[in-house]
Every structure is written in C-alpha cells, then in structure tokens.
C-alpha cells in the first residue's frame, strides 16, 4: 500500500514536472560573433551565465537567412517554401504563411498551454500565428517592444503574474542587435544610442551601456578590415550588450516568478549578422546562429558544449517533446502527402543520453525584400556544403537596410577606387555560379568552389541527391528549377515529375 502510494506520488511529481514551461529568447541578426563562441572581444556575461545552465550548440543553422521567413520556420518547423513565408512580412513586401499551416503557438494553445509573445513578431496571418498574450510591433513601437529592455521586463512580469495554473509558452523577440540606419538613423547604425541617457536619446533604466572602441573589435574574415567597418562593429557590440542584458532581465523575471526551475529556455537568433556574406546569404555567416538549450530536467547537460549538427527546424519538435504533444497529421492544398517535420528534438531522454545528430542540414531561401528574388537551396554535412543558386545569372540582390549601411557604402566606394581589403571582389559577390561546393575542413571561408573539381564529383552528387530528396519531402515548388518544370497536379497528381526545359541548366 505504502509502495503504491509512493509510486502514485512519484508519478504525480513526474507529471507535474512534465508540465513545465518553455521560453524562447530570440535575437535579431545575431551570429556567433560573441564570447559565447570564443570571440572574446564582444562581451555577453548574461548569455555566458545562461550557458552555465545549459548546453551551448556549436553547430546550429537557420533554414533561411532572412527575418520573417526564419521566424515562420522557427514557429512552424517547416522551411519557408513549405510554410509560405517566402520573404519579409511587413509593408509592401507582404508575405504571409499559408492559412493551412499549423504553428507551435496554435498547437500548444489547443493543448491547454498558455501562450505569449513579447517583442518582434514579423509573421502572419494573425490566425495562423495566434498567441493568448501579444505585445508586439502590431500594438507598440518596435523600438519599445523590441529594444527597451525595461519595457520588456514590465511586460514579461505582467505575463508571468497572471493567475493561471496552465503551463506557458513565452516567445520573446528582441529587436537587438538589428541594424537601425535604414529606419532610425538618429539612434546610430545599430540603435546603439537609443536609451543611453545622452540628450534626446532617453533612458532605459535596466540597461548599462557598454562602449567599444574601433581598435577593440574582432573583424571577422567576411568583413573588410577598414576603419569604417571597425566603427560599425563597435556599434554592433554595444547593441549586442543591450540584448545580453535583456536576456538577463527576462531570466530575473522568471526567477522572481518562481518559474526558472521548471522552464525550458532556448536562446537563438533568426539569422546571422548583417554583414556581407551574412544575412540574406546561404554562406556560413548568414546561416550559422547561436543556440543555448537550458533544460532544468537535464542538469547533467549544464555547462557543456556540443558539436552535433542541429537546425532551427529542430525547435518545434523540441517544444512538442517537452510538452509530450504529437505533431498533427494533416495535408495542404491538393497534395495527399502528409506534412511532416524534418527536424528532431534537441532534448535527451533519461535512457538515451546521446544527442540527436543530423547528418544533413538544409537551407532554403527565396527572397528577403520583395524585389530580392534570388532562390537558393543548400545542404551541408559536418565537412561539405553545396549551394544551388537557382537564379545565378542575376546579380545577387542587396537589401535597403544593408545598402545604406556605412559598411556596404565603404565596399562600393573602395571598389570604385580599387582599394578594398577584402577576401572577395564586389563582382564575385554579385555574380555567383549555379553550384558552389565547399570543403569546409580545408576552406571554412567558402572561397574555393569545388563544384567542377573531378575529385569532388561523388560528394557533389551525393549532396545534390540528398537536397533533391529533402526538397521533395518538404513539397518544394522549386523542386525542378531552373532546368525543368514541376508537374504535380492533373495527370501528375499521384506521380509528380520534373520535365526538362532544354535551357542548358
Ligand atoms: C487564482 O485563481 C484561483 C482559481 O481561479 C483562485 O481560487 C485564487 O483565489 C486566485 N488567486 C489570486 C491571487 O487571485
Ligand atoms: C523604456 O521604457 C520605460 C518603461 O516603459 C520608460 O520609462 C522609458 O522612458 C523607455 N525608454 C525609452 C528610451 O523609450
Ligand atoms: C506522453 O503522452 C503519451 C500519449 O499521449 C502517454 O502515453 C505518455 O505516458 C506520456 N509520457 C509522459 C512521460 O507523460
Ligand atoms: C495520417 O492520416 C492518414 C489519413 O487519415 C493516414 O492514412 C495516416 O496513416 C496518418 N499518419 C499518421 C502518421 O498518423
Ligand atoms: C539514441 O538516439 C540516437 C539518435 O536519435 C539513436 O540513433 C539511437 O538508436 C538511440 N539509442 C537508443 C538506445 O535508443
Ligand atoms: C562613399 O563615397 C561618397 C561619395 O564620395 C561619400 O559621400 C560617402 O561618405 C562615402 N561613404 C563611405 C562609408 O565611405
Ligand atoms: C487524394 O486522395 C483522394 C482520396 O483518397 C483521391 O480521391 C485524390 O485523387 C487524391 N489526390 C491526389 C492529388 O493524389
Ligand atoms: C518525390 O518523391 C516521390 C515519393 O518518393 C516520388 O514518387 C517522386 O517521383 C519524387 N518526385 C520527384 C520530382 O523527384
């Protein structure tokens, strides 16, 4: 009898444990340029302290290096070509996910979990991306909900103080360290002056600005080492420090509410940093993102690092796993193929203490701004990477935000003056071959294209076939591009086929 009681009590505590919460902390355009990844010039003490409560993933990639498409992928577990968010959501860009798509917030809400979003949302339509509690740029100025960490603290506190016994899912979308020169140049290139206490900049009581000098920064290999670029990086670091302190503020609020010990915390970013070869690219600086997984159920994993290959498509499966909820079985459009998640959970179970490791990591890009059609598909393994530039005869497009930055203007000016200390030329950057194959083990800067090298023929075909398979499983409308046309309805409804165009591609 006693034994049975103990067992029941044990089961009850277990199931209570299973009812923990999830918090996603999302940075905006943060790559791996911080001390979290050994770049000691850029200090992030709060991320370092979160890392001591979790696992730092050394090898994580977004599926697309663009804001709305990436956020839509994080929240659906599906790549942009499958969830419909082909490009940016706001203003005249106007992209939306398909109304049939199931998002993690809606699935959780239907399963009795309270959902909230604070900060940058940047996805739609609203019915598809619904949260019970919403404080986003749709209701407030983005500067306030995304960069004012005192306001963020107030809103997190409000969300956590609701008297509701249901477990919660809270998504905090920081707008830092996104560029600012395109929309709010009065606050500096990265809004690094916003709220710093200077005349007309206002104050953010929870933020202690950290200033950097141009000679203190670490200039990454993909950025030109010039005074202009160094100034820009110094400003970026200051804004990264506000993000870092914002993470600290949210963790403090969780602790204050007594929720820290029962909450899975994921920290990551939508895409890499806003520099050439970074955001909007499928090169590593565009796709590689930070990831900390802090699970109170797996304290053995705390303060460790892993090299396993992971993708932001793993977030939906991870959250579902945490709440022990299954993905839904549904189809979209006239396809009879069930929509399946290609990500896997990042949580270890008690028995199996090895992490899940992807052998292949995929990316899919179509547009950033509406004018920037430049579809790319890519696949990588631990060693090799293949990029397929589907529209390679077009110049690679440049977004408004990056164009106006001093860093890009510096590239233009110096290219004209033939005085650019960079690892590429502007021409190389604009005009890319159809296929780019890199052996990252000997060429981590992705400079030497092996696509036509006979020694890499087998690798090329293997990667290409895996990419094609993934595009097929994820119902990619670009499956046959640019050399062919996909037929998938009418006579070809049951057997989709690629038909050649004889265009030489
Ligand atoms: C919280 O809600 C429960 C159930 O609705 C109620 O009994 C309790 O008094 C509430 N507590 C507070 C502090 O409002
Ligand atoms: C940030 O938010 C706080 C709280 O709402 C407010 O007092 C402060 O003025 C805001 N700071 C800026 C720079 O807008
Ligand atoms: C998870 O859910 C399944 C089916 O809904 C149930 O059988 C199982 O006991 C649950 N696992 C835990 C650990 O609660
Ligand atoms: C999904 O639903 C279809 C049609 O109802 C069924 O044939 C299939 O077995 C289901 N798949 C899963 C994984 O439950
Ligand atoms: C542990 O997980 C790995 C990766 O998912 C899997 O390959 C392996 O078979 C699992 N082992 C056990 C004992 O479940
Ligand atoms: C680029 O050149 C233009 C025209 O000379 C100049 O106005 C601008 O300040 C330069 N920008 C940078 C970042 O060097
Ligand atoms: C989908 O399944 C339905 C019912 O099984 C069938 O009538 C229809 O032809 C199928 N459509 C396609 C595109 O395969
Ligand atoms: C996609 O995969 C299905 C199922 O394996 C296969 O029948 C079909 O031929 C593939 N389509 C293309 C265009 O490769």
Automatic annotation (TrEMBL):
Belongs to the sulfatase family. One of its GO terms (molecular function) is N-sulfoglucosamine sulfohydrolase activity. PROSITE patterns: SULFATASE_1 (PS00523). InterPro entries: Alkaline_phosphatase_core_sf (IPR017850), Sulfatase_CS (IPR024607), Sulfatase_N (IPR000917). Its cofactor is Ca(2+). This is N-sulphoglucosamine sulphohydrolase. Residues 21-325 form the Sulfatase N-terminal domain. PANTHER family: N-ACETYLGLUCOSAMINE-6-SULFATASE FAMILY MEMBER, N-SULPHOGLUCOSAMINE SULPHOHYDROLASE. Keywords: Glycoprotein, Hydrolase, Signal. GO terms for biological process: glycosaminoglycan catabolic process; heparan sulfate proteoglycan catabolic process. It holds the Pfam family Sulfatase. Residues 1-20 form the signal peptide. Coiled coil: none annotated.
């Amino acid at each position: 009898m006693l034994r049975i009681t103990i067992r029941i009590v044990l089961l009850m505590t277990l199931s209570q444990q299973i009812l923990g919460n999830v918090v996603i902390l999302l940075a905006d355009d943060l790559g791996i340029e911080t001390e979290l990844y050994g770049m000691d010039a850029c200090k992030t003490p709060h991320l370092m302290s979160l890392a001591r409560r979790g696992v730092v993933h050394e090898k994580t990639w977004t599926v697309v290096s663009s804001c709305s498409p990436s956020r839509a992928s994080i929240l659906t577990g599906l790549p942009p070509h499958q969830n419909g968010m082909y490009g940016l959501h706001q203003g005249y860009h106007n992209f939306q996910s398909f109304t049939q798509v199931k998002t993690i917030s809606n699935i959780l809400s239907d399963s009795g979990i309270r959902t909230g979003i604070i900060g940058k949302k940047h996805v739609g339509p609203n019915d598809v991306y619904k949260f019970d509690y919403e404080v986003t740029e749709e209701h407030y100025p983005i500067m306030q909900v995304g960069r004012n960490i005192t306001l963020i603290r107030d809103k997190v506190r409000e969300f956590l103080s609701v008297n509701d016994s249901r477990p919660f899912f809270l998504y905090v979308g920081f707008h830092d360290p996104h560029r600012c020169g395109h929309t709010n140049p009065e606050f500096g290139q990265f809004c690094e002056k916003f709220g710093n206490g200077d005349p007309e900049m206002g104050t953010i009581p929870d933020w202690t600005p950290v200033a950097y000098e141009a000679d203190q920064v670490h200039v990454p290999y993909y950025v030109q080492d010039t005074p202009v670029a160094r100034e820009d990086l110094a400003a970026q670091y200051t804004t990264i420090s506000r993000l870092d302190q914002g993470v600290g503020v949210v963790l403090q609020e969780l602790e204050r509410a007594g929720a820290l010990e029962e909450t899975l915390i994921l920290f990551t970013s939508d895409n890499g940093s806003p520099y050439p070869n970074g955001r909007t690219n499928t090169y590593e600086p565009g796709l590689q993102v930070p990831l900390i997984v802090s699970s109170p159920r797996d304290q053995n994993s705390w303060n460790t690092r892993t090299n396993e290959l992971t993708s932001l498509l793993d977030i939906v499966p991870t959250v579902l796993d945490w709440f022990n909820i299954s993905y839904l079985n549904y189809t979209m459009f006239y396809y009879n193929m069930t929509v399946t998640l290609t990500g896997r959970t990042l949580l270890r179970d008690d028995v199996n203490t090895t992490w899940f490791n992807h052998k292949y990591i995929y990316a899919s890009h179509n547009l950033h701004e509406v004018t920037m059609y430049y579809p790319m598909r890519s696949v990588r393994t631990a060693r090799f990477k293949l990029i397929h530039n589907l529209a390679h005869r077009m110049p690679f497009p440049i977004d408004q935000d990056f164009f106006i930055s001093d860093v890009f203007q510096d590239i233009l000016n110096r290219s004209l003056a033939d005085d650019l200390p960079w690892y590429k030329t502007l021409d190389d950057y604009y005009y890319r071959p159809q296929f780019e194959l890199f052996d990252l083990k000997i060429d981590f800067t992705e400079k030497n294209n092996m696509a036509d090298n006979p020694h890499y023929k087998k690798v090329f075909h293997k990667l290409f076939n895996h990419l094609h398979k993934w595009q097929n499983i994820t119902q990619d409308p670009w499956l046959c591009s640019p050399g062919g046309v996909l037929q998938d309805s009418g006579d070809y409804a049951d057997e989709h086929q690629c038909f050649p165009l004889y265009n030489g591609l």
